[in-house]
Amino acid sequence: MSCIGFKCFFCISLVSATVALANERYVLQYDSPAINSFPKKGLGYIQTALPLGNGRLGAMFSGGIDTEHLVVNDITLWMNAKRGMDEEAQSGTRSVAPADFQTVRQAYRDGKYGTKKDSMESLSTEYLSSTEPLGNYAPFTDVFISTGHDPASVRDYRRSLDSRTGLGTVSYSIGNGTFKREFFCSYPHDVVAARYTAKGATLNLTVKTTTQHKVSALKAAGNRIILTGETKMVQNNVEFMQAVQIDAKDGNVVAQADGSVNITGATDVTIILAGYCDYLPVYPSFKGRDYKKDSFQTLEKATAVSYGMLKKTHVDDFSALMKRCQLELDFKPSGLTTDKLVVGNGSLELENLYFNYSRYLQLSCSRGAPVPSNLQGLWNESLKPAWNCDYHTDINVEMNYWMTDPANLSESFRPFVEWMKVLAESGAYTARETYGISKGWSMGLNGNVFGFTAQNVHGRRAQQAGHWLCQNLYDHYAFNQDRAYLEEIYPILKGAAEFFVEFLDPWKDGTLVVYPTWSPENAYLVKEYGKLNKQAYGASWDQQLVLNLFTDCIEASTILGCDEDFRKSLQNMIPNLCPQKIGQHGQLQEWPEDWDNPKDTHRHISHLIALHPGRDISPLTTKELYEASLVTMQHRGDASTGWSTGWKTCFWARLHDGDHAHKIYQFLTSKRAYPNLFDFHPPFQIDGNFGGTAGVCEMLLQSQLRSVNSNAQTIEEAAFVAYVQDAENPKQFVPVVPDASLAEAPYILHLLPALPSAWPNGKINGLKARGGFEVDLEWKNGKLLQATIRANRDGKFRVYANGKLSEVITLKRGEFRVWK
User: Of 325, 354, 324, 350, nearest to 336 (Cα)?
Assistant: First the structure.
């Protein structure tokens, strides 16, 4: 071989290796179809099929050889609930006499623990719990595409999903024929699209569709199939339509009397699906969309362009958002399919793929819709999904949005904002009717798409959620610094704070606490009162979140120059909030009483919210609370269910223990992931995917601390501290009142705060930091090689790296600074 030939061969080989490595980072790939069954336990369709979505409309494809099964979802389609009631009734709330509410509260003051008659729990159930149905998220339709192919005759089978482009593919050969399928869900055109092609053979397909709901009409005419139906509601059924168009460049397309379409003798077939229900996010009717007109118009627009243009528009749109932030760890590709990667003991290859794929899931299930992603994101095939596939506010819906800003998918946050507007409107009735509070709004444990804000059906689960939901709202502002957005959400923030101003009540020691409440899903004094003894008062998570909410409202009103009197009232209340406490085991107490059990390994660790996703506990600024948090994490252990594992990744990253954070993340990706990388929490929950990816962001970049002293040379002196040690009781930490200076305080960008030793070399582009900045990072041999910090808006920041704090740096929008 000549030198020139050798060089060419070497270059081609290098390019091929680079492409292969890129595929390993971004592409899920399999050598067999998904399981096309739906068992109550074990692996089935939902754990092995591959998801597509545009934020509202979604589908999963199985890659079945003889029959392709598409499970289609519309994120606004629910069932078994009520809509169209009067404004008060639509909230689902109970009308409670003031005396009855005080009867409930007296049980808490008297320590009526347990579950017996007249206990805190039983009285909460009797007086506060809603008796209205919550309902559940519902599947939309099923589409079946039969090929007539014999699975035993197939060779070279491959099924894949490219997270960079949102394209799913299936390919295989039979005899001299090669067959390929392509799937995507377009945001610009709002359709599901499929293309079947054959070389060296022809396609003979049958396309049919059905739904698990009542079918109003099903008809095939020409090259279209139209299905209309309705979901069963307790009041006011939801109507919907799906329109499917099948086009073949060659061959014959013939409608059948049973509502299916046959295609014969073709080599190129496209299938376009559009569909809507009559839902609109208008309280209290939640109805009014002209779903039939929209289905037809959407289909017409999508089929008016060529398939090639439809695909290009989708890929251009999707890939532009996916390219913003990409993780590249240094590893040698294994050549294994994704399902085989998962059953191993973990690898950098899997960890890299999981991060990029979770960004794909986020973009696919939350964008452009009026409601947020639910417990299963967008994808559900069951009429009776686990936990109603609803909105749990004791961590799950909040966790769904932890990664949107750090991982540079801020557009995905908008559905959460739109849902919050409805909650605030509905929750005003819950605040007034259940609690007798005339200002602000209240939200309980469970939500739906119809404005349900009432308390859970069981008093054991009585809680408030407005403070945690608002934490997500304000953090989105912190990342993006959009004043118009702040003006939009401020009434929601203020309303949540107004509710707590009246809801907080003095406890025996005179401090203000939240009750009725619980520390989500955990029990205390179990030996005395049983494992269902959960209702409590002044739980640490509530107290931390109320401080967080009040601080955010103070800062927001300062920035907007409004509500000075209200701001002062919050500042006056903060010193009276119940302090955080360190207990007998050295742990951060979960409750105001020292009830923590060091053998308790409960999945919820709500009393560390101030560590993450909050900002008020840090190894750099609150040493005693940091050490107490370490003790708590050691008590809770490592192994847990999927979403809890994702949260623990975040916790250990915030504790600046990169190796422990990586240990948890490795466990999440290899032991808490299904073959399609959906998070393990039967049948699956998507929050673990998003929590784990948020944890990776936290390992590489943190920006929650603020510099309130620009002249300070150390981070301990510079950073705002939300809790200080009580001079009279060193085991208690009292909340700090923020002043106007916090609104102008630059964020501190901590570079590689918890880089694990297992990732010695790597890079990531496009992480977002609070203050309105984007950061590219590259590291080698465990050390920062270079960081590029770009300003999306005019702003100031400080850098903390290698134990040193920089001076305040000012950038104009579009400017950047390279840090080495």
Answer: 350
Alpha-carbon distance of 425 to 420, in angstroms, equals: 9
Which uninterrupted H or E stretch holds 461?
Answer: none
Q: What is the pLDDT of residues 262-292, one digit of tens each?
A: 999 999 999 999 999 999 999 999 999 999 9
The separation between CA 293 and the C-alpha centre of its own chain, rounded to angstroms, equals: 32
Query: For the purposes of burial, counting CB atoms within 10 Å of the CB of 95, is it exposed (0-12), middle (13-18) or buried (19 or more)?
Result: exposed
Residue 655 has pLDDT above 80, yes or no: yes
Task: In whole angstroms, give the CA distance from residue 348 to residue 759.
Answer: 8
814 conformational bin, left if phi > 0, alpha if psi -120 to 50, beta if neither: left
Q: What is the DSSP string of 2-51?
A: -HHHHHHHHHHHHHHHHHHHHHHHHEEEESSPPP----SSSS-HHHHSEE
CB atoms within 10 A of CB 14: 10
Amino acid at 395: I
- What are the C-alpha distances in Å from 715 to residues 551, 721, 725, 741? 21, 11, 18, 17
What one-letter code names the amino acid at 218?
L
> What six digits make up the tokens of 427?
């929750």
Could you tell me if 796 and 808 are in contact, meaning their C-beta atoms sit under 8 angstroms apart? yes
* Rounded distance between C-alpha atoms, residue 634 and residue 652, angstroms: 11
Closest CA to 417 of 466, 338, 489: 489
Strands 795-801 and 747-751, sheet pairing: parallel
The answer to whether the CB of 650 falls within 8 A of the CB of 612 is yes
Segment holding 797, helix H or strand E: strand 795-801
Q: Which residue has the tokens 């300062």?
A: 558
Beta bridge partners of 72: 59, 141
Q: Is 372 left (phi over 0), alpha (psi -120 to 50) or beta?
A: beta
Sequence-separated (6 or more) residues with CB below 8 Å from residue 419: 281, 370, 371, 372, 391, 447, 449
Cα 536 from Cα 521, distance rounded (Å): 11
How wide is the angle at C-alpha 116 spanned by C-alphas 111 and 120, nearest 5°? 40
Backbone angles phi, psi at 249, to 5 degrees: -65, -30
Q: What is the pLDDT of residue 22?
A: 56
Whether residue 683 has a cis bond before it, omega within 30° of 0: yes
The answer, as to whether pTM is greater than 0.90, is: yes
d(CA 468, CA 545): 6
DSSP string, 258-282: TS-EEEEEESEEEEEEEEEES----
**438, exposed or middle or buried, with CB in 10 Å at 0-12, 13-18, 19+?**
exposed
Mean pLDDT, residues 613-622: 98
What's at 362, amino acid-wise? Q
Half-sphere exposure of residue 327, counting CA atoms within 13 Å on the CB side? 29
Q: Using the structure block, give the residue that is written with the tokens 């689902």.
A: 92
Any idea how long the chain is?
820
Q: Judge residue 114's burial from the number of C-beta atoms within 10 Å of its C-beta, 0-12 exposed, 13-18 middle, 19 or more buried.
A: middle
- Is residue 578 within 8 Å of 511, Cβ to Cβ? yes
Q: What is the pLDDT of residues 524-570, one digit of tens each?
A: 999 999 999 999 999 999 999 999 999 999 999 999 999 999 999 99
Element (H, E) at 438: none
Q: What is d(CA 455, CA 503) in angstroms, rounded to the nearest whole number?
A: 15
What are 394's two structure tokens?
A: 């004791």
Q: What is the pLDDT of residues 293-316, one digit of tens each?
A: 999 999 999 999 999 999 999 999
Give the Cα separation of 84 and 330 in Å (integer): 55
